[in-house]
Specification:
about 950 residues, 17 strands, about 5% strand, single chain, alpha/beta
C-alpha cells in the first residue's frame, strides 16, 4: 500500500512514501488545490478555468489544463505508477480520488468531530484535539491566490480551526493546566480581539493561576477594545467574571517590556560594548540618546537592541519599553496609536490622552523629561514614524531598529549592522546545534555557514532544523542548501523563514527599485559598479534607484575599488531571492545590456593602455560606452584590475545565458590586461569558454582570435605541444577568411613554438612569412615584434652579428612608431646579446634602460623578467648583493605567473649565487629545485647550452 497524503492546511503539499512530490509551477498547484478542496467530486473544466485565469483566459485554456493534469499525474507516477490514477478526467471536468485519511482537511474534520463526541472524557478529547490542531501548518493553501469560490470552504475550515483551538483551551482549563494555556490565549485574543469567549478563557486562566492583577488588566483591555471597535460593553459573562477578580494592593515595580535576551546570542561584542558605553555616558550627562540600528533582513538588529537594553537596565531604572512599529508590514503602526501605548505604560489613563498628534507627542516628552527610561522601537518604517516618539530632554534613550537607513532622523546615531564574522557565525551555529555535532563535521558546518551567507536569521533557521532532526548529519543539510533553486525553501522552520523576511523589504520598494533588484540577482555572485544598475534598467543613470536599494540594505556597498568607483553586491540569499522573482524576458535583456557595457569598456580600456598588445582584441562593432566611461578609464589598467573578477564572471554568465557572440568578444577584449599582469589562469579559463562559444556562434574570426590567444597563454604555461595545435588552428582559420594580420600573428606563434623546441632551422620560415604578412597588412608593431623573434632565433643559433642586426632594426622601428614597450624588449634582447658576447657593462646598461621603460609603462610582469636578466648580469659582474635582490624578486614573479622554465633558470642562477657566497646548502637546494623542474618539463638539455629563455625573450607577443 503506497503512503500518500494531500495537505492543504498550510502550503499545498503532496507527500508520497514520506517524500514531498514536486508539483511544478503556480498553475498546476492551483489546479490541484481546486481539486483537493472538493475531493471525490468532479470539478468542471469551466470552474478550473476561472481558478487558473480569473481575469482573461487564453484560447488554449482547456488544452493547458490537460497539460497541467498530465504533469501532475506524471509526477505522482514517479513515486508509484498507481498514483497517476488519483487524478482522472471526466466528461465535464476532473476528479481527485482520495481516501478520508489521505487528505488533511478531511482528517482534521473527523478528529474534531470525534473530540466533540468524547467531551465526557477530557483526556481523550484533548488528545484528539491536539492531533487535529497539529495538522495545521499555516493558513489554508498558504502562498496560493484564493479563488472567490473557495471562500465558503476556507471560511468553514478557519472557523472549525478556531473552534478546535477554543475547545483545546477549555479542555486544558478543565484539567487545571492554567499556566500552560495563557501564552496561547494571549496570541489568540491578539488575533481575534472581538471574541469574548477567548477573553473569558484568558481572564479565567490568569485568575486561577493566581495572576489576578494580569487578569484585571486583561479585562480592562477587552473593555477598551470593545468600546473602541464596536462602541459596546463586555457581555454578561465577562462582567460577572470581573466581579471575581480581587486585585491585591501592591507597589508596582518599574515597567520592563523587553523581550527575552536570547540565551544563545553570539558575537556583536564590539557594537554592544560601544552602544552600552554611549548610553551610559549620555545618561550621566543628562542627555537623551537616539540610536538607529539598520541592516538587511535577518541581520539581527532587534536581537542587538534587546541585548543592549537589558545591559543598561540599571542605567535606566525608571523602566524599559518595547514597541513593534510594524514598519515593514502592510499596516505600519501610526504614531498616534504608538503614543497611546507608550503613555498608557507611563500611567496616563485613556481619558487623559490628547486627541491631537502634536499634543500627544508633547505629553510623552514631558513624561520622559523627568525619567530615565530606555525605549526600544522595533521595525521602524520611516523617520516620520519615529520622530513623534522621541524624548526632547532628560536622560532617556531610544533604540530604533529599521531595515532602511534613516538619514533624515536628526540627532540620531546611525549603526549599520553587518553580517556575522566567520568565527561568530560558527559559534552561533555551535550554540544552537551543539559543539559535538559541529566538531564531528567541521567542513559541512562551514558549508552551511557559507550557504547561509553568515546571516543570523538563516543560521538560526538552519540550526533549528538540525536541532529538531537529531539523526540528521550536517552533510544532509549542507547538500540540500547547496542547490540555490531550493535554498530558500530549506531555510524555513515554523514561522522563521528567510524568504518571508526578505519579502517584507522587497514589497516596500518602488517599482523601478524592485525591477533593478530582480535583474541584479541574475548577474550572479559578483560585485558590480553603479553603471550596471542603470544598464539593467535600460537607463542612462540610476543613482536614485541605487540609493533606495542601498538604504533598504538590499544592495550592499562593499568598498571603493582601485579605479575609484564604488562597488556593490547582493548578499547571496538576497541574490537567490531576486533570481526567483526575475522574469526571463526582462532578465535576458538586462544581462545583455550589462555585458555590452563591459565589452565596450574593456575594448576602450585596452585601446587606452600604453602597451600595444600583439594580437586582435576587438572588431569594428561600435558599442555605446556608459556615461562615466572617461572618468572610469582615466587609468585603464586600474579599471581592469578593479573589474577583473567581475569580467571573468561575466564571460561565464554570457556563455551560460546563450550570448555566444558577446562571450568570445568580451574574452578577447580582456586579453591585453591578462597579458600585462600575467593572469594566466583567468586567461586560459575564459578562452576555453570563449572557444566553445565562438564555435556555437559560427564565428570563424572569433574562433581564430581565441585560438591564437590560447596558443600564447599555453606558451606561457610551458605547454608547447598544445600551443602548436592552437596556433596551427588559428592559422587555418585566418587563412580561410583572408585575414593577413591575424595570419601573421599565427605564423609568429608557430615560429616561437619551434624555437622553444630547439628547431631553429624550421623556426625561421614561419617568422619570415609573418614579417611579409605584417608588411602587406601595414602593421609596423607586428614587424617590430617579429624582428625581435627572428633575432632570438639567430641568438639560439649563435649567429650573434646577424641577431644584432635584427634587434637593432626592431629597436629603430619601435622608436620610429613610438612603441615604447617593443623598444624595451629590443633593448632587453640587445642586453642579453651583449652578455653572451662578454660585454657585461654594455649589457647591464641596455637591460637597465629596458627596466626603466617597463617600469614607466606599469608593466610589472616584464619588469620581473628583466630583473632576471639584470640579476644574471650583476651575478657575473660580481655584484652579488644586487644580484640576489633582483633574482629573488624575479623568482617571485615567475612563481606567481606559473612560468616553470623561467623559475628553473632563476633557481639555477640563485644556486650559482649562493655557491659564490660560500653557502653550499642553499646553493644545492636551488640547484636541485632547478633540476626537478626541468625533469618535469622534460628539458634534458643542460641550461648552459640553451639560450636564456626569459619570459619576454621567449614569448614573441610580449
Amino acid at each position: 500500500m503506497i503512503s500518500l497524503t494531500f495537505r492543504i492546511l498550510g502550503p499545498l503539499e503532496v507527500i508520497a512514501e514520506g517524500r514531498a512530490v514536486p508539483l511544478g509551477g503556480p498553475k498546476p498547484r492551483l489546479l490541484l488545490a481546486a481539486l483537493a478542496l472538493q475531493p471525490n467530486i468532479v470539478v468542471s473544466t469551466e470552474a478550473l478555468v476561472e481558478v487558473l485565469w480569473p481575469t482573461t483566459a487564453p484560447r488554449s485554456a482547456a488544452a493547458n489544463i490537460r497539460t497541467y493534469v498530465h504533469s501532475l499525474r506524471r509526477r505522482l507516477a514517479e513515486t508509484s505508477p498507481d498514483l497517476a490514477d488519483r487524478i482522472t478526467s471526466r466528461a465535464s471536468g476532473y476528479l481527485l480520488t482520495v481516501e478520508e485519511d489521505e487528505l488533511d482537511h478531511l482528517v482534521f474534520t473527523r478528529l474534531a468531530t470525534q473530540a466533540w463526541e468524547s467531551q465526557d472524557d477530557p483526556e481523550t478529547a484533548l488528545a484528539l484535539l491536539d492531533q487535529a490542531h497539529s495538522l495545521w501548518r499555516g493558513e489554508v493553501l498558504e502562498g496560493l491566490p484564493h479563488d472567490p469560490t473557495w471562500g465558503p470552504t476556507v471560511a468553514r475550515l478557519d472557523e472549525l480551526r478556531l473552534a478546535v483551538q477554543e475547545q483545546r483551551l477549555r479542555a486544558r482549563l478543565d484539567l487545571g493546566r492554567h499556566n500552560e494555556v495563557i501564552a496561547e490565549l494571549r496570541a489568540l485574543v491578539t488575533e481575534h480581539p472581538l471574541r469574548e469567549e477567548l477573553w473569558h478563557h484568558l481572564i479565567t486562566a490568569l485568575r486561577d493561576a493566581g495572576r489576578t492583577t494580569e487578569a484585571a488588566e486583561a479585562y480592562e483591555l477587552v473593555e477598551q477594545t470593545l468600546a473602541d471597535e464596536l462602541s459596546a460593553s463586555p457581555g454578561a459573562a465577562l462582567r460577572e467574571l470581573r466581579t471575581t477578580l480581587e486585585v491585591p494592593c501592591a507597589k508596582i515595580p518599574p515597567i520592563c517590556q523587553l523581550p527575552l535576551d536570547l540565551p544563545d546570542f553570539t558575537g556583536r561584542g564590539e557594537v554592544i560594548e560601544h552602544l552600552v558605553a554611549k548610553l551610559r555616558h549620555h545618561a550621566e550627562a543628562e542627555r537623551p540618546t537616539i540610536v538607529v540600528l539598520s541592516g538587511a533582513p535577518g541581520i539581527g538588529k532587534s536581537s542587538i537592541a534587546v541585548r543592549v537594553a537589558h545591559a543598561v537596565r540599571t542605567v535606566f531604572p525608571d523602566g524599559q519599553l518595547h514597541v513593534d512599529l510594524a514598519g515593514t508590514s502592510s499596516s505600519p503602526r501610526s504614531p498616534m496609536s504608538v503614543l497611546a501605548e507608550l503613555l498608557r505604560a507611563l500611567g496616563i489613563p485613556d481619558s487623559g490622552l490628547p486627541r491631537d498628534l502634536a499634543e500627544r507627542s508633547a505629553l510623552l516628552r514631558s513624561q520622559l523629561a523627568g525619567r530615565r527610561m530606555c525605549i526600544v522601537l522595533d521595525d521602524a518604517g520611516s523617520a516620520a514614524q519615529v520622530r513623534p516618539l522621541l524624548p526632547g530632554a532628560g536622560a532617556s534613550a531610544v533604540l530604533v531598529t529599521s531595515r532602511i537607513r534613516l538619514p533624515d532622523l536628526a540627532g540620531a546615531m546611525p549603526v549599520d549592522v553587518d553580517l556575522l564574522p566567520e568565527p561568530e557565525a560558527a559559534r552561533l551555529l555551535e550554540g544552537i546545534v551543539g559543539h559535538e555535532r559541529v566538531a564531528a563535521e567541521p567542513e559541512d558546518a562551514a558549508a552551511i555557514l557559507r550557504q547561509c551567507g553568515h546571516l543570523p536569521l538563516a543560521i538560526r533557521v538552519a540550526g533549528a532544523k538540525l536541532t529538531h532532526r537529531p539523526t540528521w548529519s550536517l552533510r544532509i543539510l549542507a547538500d540540500r542548501l547547496h542547490d540555490e533553486h531550493r535554498r530558500l525553501d530549506e531555510l524555513r522552520v515554523g514561522d522563521l523563514a528567510v524568504r518571508a523576511s526578505v519579502t517584507l523589504s522587497y514589497d516596500l520598494l518602488p517599482m523601478s527599485a524592485a525591477a533593478a533588484f530582480r535583474r541584479l540577482g541574475a548577474l550572479g555572485p559578483v560585485q558590480f559598479p553603479a553603471w550596471a544598475v542603470a544598464a539593467v534598467l535600460g537607463r542612462p543613470s540610476a543613482d536614485d534607484v541605487l540609493d533606495v536599494l542601498v538604504d533598504a540594505h538590499l544592495v550592499e556597498l562593499v568598498a571603493t575599488d582601485v579605479a575609484g568607483q564604488p562597488r556593490y553586491r547582493l548578499h547571496d540569499l538576497l541574490r537567490v531571492y531576486a533570481a526567483e522573482l526575475a522574469e526571463p524576458g526582462e532578465t535576458r535583456a538586462a544581462i545583455g545590456r550589462v555585458l555590452k557595457g563591459y565589452l565596450a569598456l574593456a575594448v576602450e580600456a585596452a585601446e587606452r593602455m600604453p602597451i600595444h598588445f600583439f594580437g586582435q582584441y576587438h572588431d569594428d562593432t561600435d558599442l555605446p560606452l556608459p556615461p562615466e566611461a572617461d572618468r572610469l578609464l582615466t587609468d585603464p589598467a586600474a579599471w581592469f584590475a578593479a573589474e577583473r573578477a567581475t569580467c571573468v564572471g561575466a564571460v561565464a554568465l554570457a556563455a551560460e545565458r546563450g550570448f555566444d557572440d558577446l562571450t568570445w568578444r568580451l574574452t578577447v577584449a580582456l586579453t591585453p590586461y591578462f597579458d600585462l599582469r600575467g593572469h594566466q589562469d583567468d586567461w586560459h579559463a575564459t578562452h576555453l569558454i570563449a572557444l566553445e562559444a565562438a564555435r556555437r556562434a559560427g564565428a570563424i574570426r572569433g574562433e581564430a582570435v581565441v585560438q591564437r590567444n590560447l596558443g600564447q597563454v599555453l606558451l606561457y604555461q610551458d605547454n608547447d605541444a598544445d600551443a602548436m595545435v592552437a596556433f596551427e588552428a588559428a592559422r587555418e582559420l585566418y587563412q580561410r577568411i583572408g585575414d593577413q594580420q591575424g595570419l601573421g600573428e599565427a605564423y609568429a606563434g608557430l615560429g616561437t613554438v619551434l624555437r622553444m623546441q630547439g628547431k631553429t632551422d624550421r623556426a625561421l620560415e614561419p617568422c619570415h612569412e609573418a614579417l611579409r604578412l605584417f608588411g602587406e597588412a601595414g602593421d609596423p608593431h607586428g614587424e617590430a615584434v617579429i624582428r625581435i623573434a627572428i633575432g632570438s632565433i639567430w641568438v639560439a643559433r649563435k649567429c650573434y652579428a646577424t641577431a644584432r642586426r635584427w634587434y637593432t632594426d626592431a629597436l629603430e622601428l619601435s622608436c620610429e612608431i613610438g612603441d615604447r614597450h617593443r623598444e624595451a624588449h629590443a633593448l632587453q634582447r640587445l642586453g642579453l646579446l651583449n652578455q653572451r658576447e662578454g660585454n657585461l657593462a654594455e649589457a647591464r646598461e641596455h637591460v637597465t634602460r629596458a627596466i626603466a621603460v617597463f617600469t614607466d609603462l606599469g608593466d610589472d610582469h616584464c619588469v620581473g623578467y628583466a630583473n632576471q636578466n639584470l640579476g644574471a648580469l650583476c651575478l657575473y659582474s660580481g655584484d652579488l648583493a644586487h644580484a640576489q635582490l633582483l633574482l629573488v624578486n624575479s623568482l617571485s614573479v615567475h612563481r606567481r605567473n606559473g612560468d616553470r622554465r623561467s623559475e628553473a633558470e632563476v633557481s639555477q642562477l640563485l644556486g650559482e649565487l649562493h655557491s659564490a657566497l660560500s653557502q653550499p646548502e642553499r646553493s644545492r637546494s636551488y640547484a636541485e629545485r632547478a633540476r626537478a623542474i626541468r625533469r618535469e618539463l622534460s628539458a634534458d638539455t643542460p641550461v648552459d647550452d640553451q639560450p636564456r629563455k626569459t619570459g619576454p625573450h621567449r614569448i614573441v607577443s610580449a
